[in-house]
């Protein structure tokens, strides 16, 4: 068997061209070292020829570092490392190297191996494993390990020479909070090691999503995003990660949240890395952003809140968080304190300068756990100060609809038990907030104090 035949059977056509002669020779050297693995391909290899190519090979490997890289990768797959890890809490993921091909129209990934047995996994590449309604709208991807028989792999129609990451923007990713916690942060964690030399393959693409996060995506990959659900292409890659890294159950979390917020500030060219530090005779006023909502969980007396905050010494901005992220990030970053009713809008605390303050207004409805888990704990890991203001019955517009001794006030847990939809419809969709400004002033004063320390 000739060298190029061995090579042709181990790599796709595209790869041959890319690796060039250097890789071919290098390949043979490694093949010899791994002769147990490659036994069926090797056949009788003349020893004199081998010595000759060894010398050339070493020389070529030294000049062409690039050529040796995919080779190491190819060797790696011969080891017994598990391709898919389905034992993580939040996200299944598979990592593979060598000859990897993805057929979008069947959501199937083929990976060639000469060592392991045929195997396959089915995973959904979205980091909210276990949440049935989120995962419902996420495509199943099947990863198939093909043993030896390259002819059973689909033919490449597009070949790429950088790694790929496959992920879904289905699930809850249309919601700002979930977009960050389920997709953007795990994507950052998974992709930053590639230093933009990676292609993103997106499944369940929804209109406007990639445009909305364009600045961030551009900083993580310098290539155009591929919509993997579209067309009949078979894309071939030297390596691929399917599913995003998220080991822990914590929200808005990565190993270094402060690195992530720094990354966001750089993506959006935001100037302020730390909030104002007040002295007793401050000339510049601290800025308070009141996150307003139009349809649900609205502040009904926002003017009174503005006046109270101005009295205390804030410069006040009231804004809905519905502009594009360039504008939202600028606005949020220009403020020192952000207040809002529990909801996806306050996810934009990600853009606050460090040491800034988040005030979460928590409506009626047994929301302590979700308020703390979604925004309270994460705000601390971002280096923000956190204040919570729990409204009482009199500050909820639900008093206009229900008597004070109604189940809605007396026993929200019983309504939670009826299911998400009835719960959401009462507490999240039909409840507005009329803050008792006298009481709320205490919280605003605390925020001001926190800017002093
Ligand atoms: C899967 O991931 C978990 C969590 O990171 C890790 O503890 C475990 O060792 C991994 N399993 C395999 C087979 O790699
Ligand atoms: C592995 O799968 C391929 C393609 O389905 C098949 O041709 C081959 O015979 C299988 N090998 C084994 C050992 O089952
Ligand atoms: C996705 O895969 C899982 C596990 O194999 C299976 O139970 C489920 O029915 C599949 N869903 C779809 C939509 O194919
Ligand atoms: C999927 O794409 C392949 C080519 O890559 C084509 O042969 C096949 O017919 C397509 N299948 C469907 C269901 O469109
Ligand atoms: C965001 O909105 C501003 C003002 O409307 C516009 O100039 C800018 O192009 C928009 N940016 C993006 C990324 O859409
Ligand atoms: C508002 O809060 C203050 C201080 O807690 C309290 O004295 C007052 O009765 C409250 N006002 C209303 C209308 O509930």
TrEMBL record:
Keywords: Glycoprotein, Glycosyltransferase, Membrane, Transferase, Transmembrane, Transmembrane helix
Localization per Swiss-Prot or TrEMBL: Golgi apparatus membrane
Ranges for domain Glycosyltransferase 61 catalytic: 178-358
Main location as per UniProt: Golgi
Topology relative to the membrane: Single-pass type II membrane protein
A GO MF label: pentosyltransferase activity
Source organism superkingdom: Eukaryota
Pfam families: Glyco_transf_61
Membrane-spanning parts: 21-42
Keyword Plastid set for record: no
GO cellular component, one term: Golgi membrane
Keyword field contains Transcription: no
PANTHER family: GLYCOSYLTRANSFERASE (PTHR20961), GLYCOSYLTRANSFERASE-RELATED (PTHR20961:SF5)
Protein name stated in the entry: Glycosyltransferase 61 catalytic domain-containing protein
């Amino acid at each position: 068997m000739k060298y190029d035949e061995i090579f042709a059977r181990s790599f796709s056509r595209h790869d041959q061209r890319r690796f060039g002669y250097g890789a071919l020779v290098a390949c043979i050297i490694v093949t010899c070292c791994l002769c147990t693995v490659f036994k069926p391909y090797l056949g009788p290899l003349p020893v004199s020829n081998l010595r000759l190519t060894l010398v050339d090979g070493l020389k070529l490997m030294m000049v062409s570092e690039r050529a040796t890289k995919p080779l190491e990768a190819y060797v790696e797959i011969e080891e017994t490392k598990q391709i898919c890890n389905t034992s993580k809490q939040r996200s299944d993921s598979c990592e593979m190297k060598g000859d990897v091909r993805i057929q979008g129209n069947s959501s199937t990934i083929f990976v060639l191996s000469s060592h392991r047995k045929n195997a396959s996994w089915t995973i959904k590449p979205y980091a909210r494993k276990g949440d049935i309604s989120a995962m419902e709208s996420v495509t199943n991807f099947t990863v198939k390990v093909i043993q030896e028989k390259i002819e059973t792999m689909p033919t490449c129609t597009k070949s790429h020479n950088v790694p790929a990451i496959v992920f879904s923007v289905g699930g809850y990713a249309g919601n700002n909070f979930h977009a960050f916690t389920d997709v953007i942060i795990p994507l950052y964690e998974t992709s930053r090691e590639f230093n933009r030399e990676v292609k993103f393959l997106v499944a369940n693409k929804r209109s406007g999503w990639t445009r909305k996060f364009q600045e961030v995506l551009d900083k993580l990959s310098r290539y155009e995003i591929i919509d993997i659900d579209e067309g009949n292409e078979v894309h071939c890659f030297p390596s691929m990660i399917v599913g995003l890294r998220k080991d822990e159950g914590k929200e808005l979390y990565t190993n270094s949240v402060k690195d992530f917020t720094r990354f966001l500030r750089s993506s959006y060219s935001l100037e302020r890395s730390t909030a104002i530090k007040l002295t007793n005779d401050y000339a510049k006023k601290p800025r308070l952003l009141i996150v307003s909502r139009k349809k649900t969980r609205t502040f009904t007396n926002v003017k009174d809140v503005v006046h109270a905050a101005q009295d205390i010494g804030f410069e006040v901005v009231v804004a809905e968080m519905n502009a594009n992220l360039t504008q939202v990030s600028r606005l949020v970053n220009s403020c020192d304190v952000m207040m809002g009713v529990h909801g996806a809008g306050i996810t934009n605390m990600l853009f606050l300068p460090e040491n800034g303050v988040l005030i979460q207004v928590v409506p009626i409805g047994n929301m302590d756990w979700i308020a703390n888990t979604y925004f309270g704990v994460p705000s601390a890991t971002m280096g923000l100060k956190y204040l919570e203001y729990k409204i009482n019955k009199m500050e909820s517009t639900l008093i206009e609809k229900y008597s004070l001794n109604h189940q809605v006030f007396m026993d929200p847990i019983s309504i939670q038990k009826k299911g998400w939809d009835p719960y959401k419809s009462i507490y999240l969709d039909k409840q507005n907030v009329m803050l008792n400004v006298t009481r709320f002033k205490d919280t605003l004063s605390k925020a001001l104090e926190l800017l002093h320390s």
